[in-house]
Each structure stands twice: as C-alpha cells, then as structure tokens.
Amino acid sequence: MTSTFTNQIGNWNPQLLREFRGRLKPRSLAAAIVISLIGQTLLGLGFSQQTYNPVIERWAGLAETMTWIIPYALFTAGSYYLVSDLNQEEKRGTLNFIRLSPRPSQDILLGKMLGVPILPYIAIGLAIPLHLLASFQSGMPFLFLISYYLTLAIGSFAWFSLAILYGLLSSSRTLAVGQQSVMAVAFAGLTLFFLSPLYFVWNFAVTWQPLGFDVWSAQWDSYRSAPSNRNVPIQWFGQAINQSIWQSQGFTLIVLVIATVLIWLMLVRLFRNPNTTIMSKWQSYAIVSFLEALIIGFFVVTSEQGDFAEISAVTGSWLLYAFNVGLTIVIMLALCPQRASLLDWLRFQKHPQGILRDLVWADKSPAIVAIAINLVIINALYVPWMFLVGVGKENPSVAAIIVLSMTGVLLIYTTVVQQILALRIRNPYTWSMGGLGLWMLVPPIMLAILQIVPDEMPASMMIWTFLGYPFSDFGKPILISSALVGLVAQLCVIVLLVWQFQNHLRTLSRSQSSMIG
Known about the structure:
Shape: globular
Order of helices and strands: HHHHHHHHHHEEHHHHHHHHHH
Structural class: mainly alpha
C-alpha cells in the first residue's frame, strides 16, 4: 500500500489500517489469490469438459454453481475469522487495549468487520468477474444479479455483526465450551449448516421469487421442470410478500436493516463494558416486539388459505409456543445481571419510590419485572392469534391453559436464574444454563419413561402443566381441572421464589451497608 493510501485509511479508520497491516502479508495475500484462482480454474475446467452439453448450458451450470458457492464461502470463512480474531485478542489482552481507544466504538467494530476477513474478501472478490461473465453468457436475469449482490452485501453485514457479538460474548464470558478455538469452529459450523441453507431457502422463496431465476434455471435442467407450486404466495399478516419485486425486496431488506440496528446497539454496549448485561431492558422490549411480530405474521392465515388454516391452527400453536419459550430464555440469560451489578444497584438505590422505575429500565436491577413486561409484549400478539387462528378458536379453555402455563413456567425460570446469578459462585452462566437444561428435560423424560402421562393418568396433567408442557387434547373434563391445579401450583411457586429473592436482596443490602460503615 502506498503511503498516501495508507494515510487515508488510517485517518478514516485506524483499526482498519491495523488489521490490514497485520493480515496483508505477502505470503497470506499470495495464498488467498492462489486458492481463489485454483478454485475458479477447477470449476471452469469441470464445466468445459461437459462436451455433451451446449456451450451456453455449460455457462449456465457454472453461473448457478458459483451463485451457491459464493455466499457459503463468504459467510463461513468471514464468521470464523471474526470470532477467532476476537478470542485471540482477548487471550493476548489486546482487546481491552483497543477498548481504551478514544475512537467511537462503531468505528472500531466496523474496522474489525472490514479488516479481519480481508483475505476471504479478496479470494471471493476475485471470483466475482467469472461469476458475472458466466451469468451474462448464459442470460441470467440482470435484476436477479443486482438483487443477489445487494442481498449478499447486506446479509453479510448483518451476519458478521452477529459474529462479532458472539465473539465478544465468548471471549468475555465463561460458557460451557472451554476452548476458545472451539467457539470459532462452532459458529462457522452453525453458519455452514444452518444459516447458509436458510439464506438460500428464504431468498429463493421470497426475495428472488419474482425475478425469474427459477424459470431461467429450469430451462437448462430437463429434470427440473417448473413445479406447480412455484408461485405459491407467502403471506405476512395476510399480505403476499413474494409476488412483486418491490414487496419481496423491500420486506427482506427492511428486516435485515432492523435486525442489524438491534445487533449493533448490543455490540456498542458490550464492547465498551464487557461485564454488563448483553442488552439493556429497553433494547429487550424492542427486540421481543420485533421478533414476535415478525414470526407471528407468517402464521396469520386468510380465508383463501382454507386447507392451510386447518393445519396451522394446531401446528402453529405449538411452534409459536416453542419459539416464545426459546426467545424468552435467551432474553432472560441476556438480561439478568450478576452479583456485582446487583450490589452496585443496591449501593446507589436509596429512594424507594424509584424502585419500580429501576426494575423497568435500569440495567443493573433484577430482571424479573422486565421479563414479565416482555411476556406481556409476547402475549399481546400470541393471545389474539391463539383465539382467532390457533387452538383457541375451537377450544378457548385449552388456549388459556397453554398461555398461562407458558407464562408461569417462564417466570419461574427467570426467578431461579436471577437467584443463581446473584450467588457468589464461579461460572454462574454455566450453572444457570445447566440448571435450566436439567429442569426442562429431565422431569418430562422421567415422566414419559414411567408412563405418567395424561392419556394414562389424567391427574398427571397437573404435573405437566406445572412443568410448562400442557400437551394434551383435553378431551376429558378432569384434564382441565388437573391443569388448573398445576397453574395454581405455578402461582404459589412464583410467589415463594420472589419472596425468597427479595430476602436475598435485603441480605445483600445489609452486607453492603455494613461494609460501607
């Protein structure tokens, strides 16, 4: 790099220049270029040898293959580089040094995102001309190409933002997985086997559906004639989102932008203060509102979807139930403060009239009230859906039991997790996640092995409801009565746990006062 260009990069983003200097070594740069050129050569030779196909069909095969390979390679390699780099920075102790920089956190994190995966960027960038050449030679729709690279750029920014967040968390918190290198491999594996396939499934079904890629691809493959369900509309709150270019592109890009903004709010927060909770309470309300509205919109069916409505009533109820439980547990672990934060809050909390405001908004206050508010937000959409579309449309009492059981067991989980994090123990997150896993899995497995199930023993519905698994057709009146007993038991346990946690806070407060005195 010339000195002028180097100075320009350094003035704009010093962290980016630091990454360039550390990674753009001659050997590393030559290796990235050689790997890219060898891969392109092998692909080109492979398709050029298909002499039994016309030339244009060989170009089409090469273009389609590279269309699949580029996102897989970019997402997987980029995410691995980012997570591994942050773990190495933490291990060497340089991450805290970077945090002391007077530059804005956004600039430092952006420098990481642009600079750390620079070698994969170069390798993939060298493959783009061949992809474009093959696409133009085979007549791939031009609008598809524009959307393809636009979605790839914004999608990469969103996923790499999540990779940096994961890297910060794995480097600053002791989790169940011990080796830091395993963290990077695990996230890269998640990217390769889950995100990348999901990326293509979503984009082919929604974003690129109106752009003619399927029609273009089918004309070169005699085994893949256009299926009859190719233009099945995908609806969100009753509105088709894959039938026009503006709707499909707009919906995908808006979702990606909102998700990226929410991730960056957590990134900036966690980068400057690695010991704080992952998100603030108001951020949790925004994230839950966004995700709940996004997911539940796909389960809202219209009168034109009569066959699908019958299936989605039961299936959707349990899928949304599982999603809401998983979402709340993640928010719970991200929101509950540890013992040191609780002590800080108790030290500066002097006015009783401000306690409620702190419980709703303050970062270091206990998260029980905040989780209850998040459950209100979830149920504000889930409950109407259950009674208008889900199982509550035919069985209102069943829907009420499902919602109350879910809410009750999640409040129990929250109180227990907050209690564990307030204890003076090592690795509280490991204890919290381990305890939750045992509580959620061991009792239902044991009950199933012993055949203590509602079909065989109706009174056992009380236990299943208490554990948060109100799974039954409720055909017998005794099942509903037994479930109600389970709900009352949940309420009693919640009151007992909250009372016990309040006593624990009073003990901590007295210990704080005695130490100060």
